[in-house]
Each structure stands twice: as structure tokens, then as C-alpha cells.
Amino acid sequence: MQEKGLDEKEVLEALEKMLRKDAAYSSGKILASMCSEPLELTKKVYTLAVEKNLGDEFLFPGSVELERKTVSMLGILLSNPDASGHIVTGGTEANITALWVAKKLSEGDRREVILPESAHFSFERAADILELKLMKIPLTDEFKIDTYQVKETLNHKTLAIVGVAGSTGLGVVDPIPELSDIALDHDVYLHVDAAFGGFVLPFLQDMGLYGGGFDFESPGVKSITIDPHKMGLCPIPAGGILFRDSSLLSIIGKSVDYIGRGRLKFTTLFGTRPASPAVDVWAAMKSLGRSGYRTIVKNCMDNAMRLYEDLKRLKDVHLLVKPTMNIIGFSCSKVDDGLVVDRLLERGWALSLFPTHIRVVVMPHTNAQHLKAFVSDLEEVLESFENHV
Ligand SMILES: Cc1ncc(COP(=O)(O)O)c(C=O)c1O
After folding, report:
1. In a shared domain, residues 359 and 222
2. pLDDT (tens digit per residue) in 112-130
3. Mean pLDDT, residues 67-72
4. Which among 83, 132, 280, 307 would be 20 to 30 A from 111, CA to CA?
5. pTM assigned to the model
6. How many Å lie between the centroid of ligand 1 and the Cα of residue 257?
């Protein structure tokens, strides 16, 4: 830090210069992100609560009440008006919190967590921190957890089962109702990671485009991760962790002398927490309503399905699975996927590379014209490799 401060204009200019290096969603070329341009309203209301601390209900009861109302709206979205939980920093914190609760609830030396190979790396973080052992289950031909293998792997050391409702790589949904039956039969905790799918599947259900179940409707589901900063169109950071009822959350409750004279219980990992994300999620859900989100999800799905059909027509492109939601995975049969991703990046397209495929996330910032241009660039890139052979 320099001795004398800069004036506001200088600070803003310096910041703008640096931030111009970042990619812009408005280009339509970011196909690698599960986040998008947040709603204008959420940018406006963010500043209403910047100085407020959700970790201090004594000082900020209004903000804490607002978080409760937000969690209640999320609970209704996930078929459980009685759900309790928090707005957190994202899917990673939510998944760690879920397994933390599962561990505190467990008796004896149950330390194994059964989860699909497709699960997000945040579970590896959770396992490291909580000293748990991950039992990764292979996927079926449809890229879902193999429930036969789940049953084979269950034993007296099993702490929890995790199902994914919208896998990071392909947007595939595990058979949650079946996992729920297994969890109930064996008296094991079941967590659903719907970080991405939480703001997609309810609206697909409304439109009759998804009917497999994924939420608290399945009685064995104890907790769900749902991220408003993904398809909820809220600014980062806004994650959500919901538990079936408050008794689950209270197991990690902790009171401290210096806040609220020991009368308050912290039920989050972090102490000081920003209120703005909760304000934002409340504002986004209130302003869009179910029909607003439905329209956004329908647009993304229409675009994703059109892209899927266009990619199908390209020779040398192999599509892994018909999309359940607005995520598409494909691989190139004659060229290394990594080379294709690099060439497309030279043309401005940001894509994600997975060990088995290239991923495209069709977010609201990408429209049908962008996707047509993408397919045409991909075709040219593939042809350029062919000409070199
Ligand atoms: C299924 C799933 N769970 C959890 C996460 C982690 O979310 P975050 O990056 O917000 O911590 C992601 C992120 O992509 C995800 O796809």
C-alpha cells in the first residue's frame, strides 16, 4: 500500500483497466461456466445490505429473518416447506456442511461415503477436512450411479450416500428415489447435490420435461445443495444448503459468549457472513417467480436441444448422452479433445475439458445465434485437422 491514498477517479480507472482482462458473458462465447450474468435487480439490491452480518442475529434480526424466508422459498421449490438451512458461499460449502452434519449424527466409526464417480471435487475437500473415506461408484451406460454397486458397497462403516441431481460434467440426474429407498432400508444419511439442477429440475418438472424425482419428495433425502449463483441467476457467492428439518441442522449448533450473550446458535461453518447474497436470492425469486424461471429454463433447454441436434449432424463428433438439462457433452472421434478446445479458444470460445469429453453449458447469456456460430467454428476446426492428416 502506498503512503498517500489515490482519489476515487484514479482507483476506478485502475480497477476498470484490470477488470477489462476478464471474459464477458455478453460475448455469448462463455460455454464453460455454470454461472451467468446476474439479474439487474440483484445488482441493485446487493448494496442494501453490504454492512450487515448474518452471523449476528442480535444486531441484524431483519437480515436473518430474510435469510429464513429465502430458505423457506427454496424449501418449497424442493418440495419441503419445513426445510431449514442457510444461504452459503456455494456448492462446495454446502456439500461440506451436509457431510459434517451426517458425521455428527452418526454413531460409532462410520466413515465411508458412497457417491458416484461423477460427483463434484468438493466431496474430496469434505473428505479431507472431515477425515472420511470416499467410496466412488462406477456409472451406468447412462452416466448415472450404479445402484446395484451402491448396495454391494454398503456396510456397517457407511456414513452417507450422495446422489447428484445435475452432474457437473453432463447434467445427468442419479436415481434419487431409488437411492432414497436404499438409504431408508439401511438407515443411512442421503445427501443430494443439486447445486446446478436445483434451479433447473423443478421448472422442467412444471413443463413435463423431467419426471424422475430428485428432491425432498423422496423421504430418505436428508439434505440438498442448491446454488442460486448458478441457474438462480444471482451474483456470486450464493449457495444454498437445506436440511429436511431443523433438528438435523442443530446438531452443528454452537453458541459463543461474545455474540448475543451466548443465546444465539451458529449453524454454519463461518461466523461472519454477508447478508447481501440472501437479500439477492430473495429478490431474484420474488421478482422472477416460478413462471420467470420457467421461461429462462425453457429458453436454455430449447437452445441446448437445438445445439444437440446440430452437433449430431457433424461427422467425427460423438455425443455422450441426450441432455437432461442445459449441459451437453461430446467428444471428437478423430482428434484429441484438448486440441479442439485449444483451437476453439483461439477463436474466443471458452469450453470445459473433462477426461472423457468436452462440456458445453448453455446458460442464459448464450443464444441460438451464438450456438450456430459455435457449431460452424467447431466444424471448421475439425475440418482443418482433417486437411492436415
Ligand atoms: C454438482 C456440483 N456441485 C457442487 C459444485 C461446487 O459449487 P461451487 O463452485 O459453487 O462451490 C459444483 C460446481 O460446479 C457442481 O457442479
Report:
1. no
2. 999 999 999 999 999 999 9
3. 98
4. 83
5. 0.97
6. 34
Cα–Cα distance, 352 to 149 (Å, whole number): 29
Q: Is residue 157 part of a domain?
A: yes
Check pocket membership of 227 for ligand 1, CB cut-off 6 A. yes
Number of separate domains in the chain: 2
Rounded to whole angstroms, what are the CA distances from 60 to 118, 139, 275? 40, 46, 9
The residues facing 330 across adjacent strands are 319, 358
Report if residue 5 sits inside a domain.
no
Q: How many whole angstroms separate alpha carbon 154 and alpha carbon 10?
A: 61
For residue 115, the cross-strand partners are 136
Atom of ligand 1 nearest to the CA of 95: 4
Q: Is the CB of 118 under 6 A from ligand 1?
A: no
- Which of 253, 287, 321 is where one domain is finished? 287
- Ligand 1 centroid distance, CA of 14 (Å): 32
Tell me which residue range forms the domain holding 317: 10-38+290-379
- Residue 227 and residue 323 in one domain: no
CATH code for the domain of 338:
3.90.1150.10
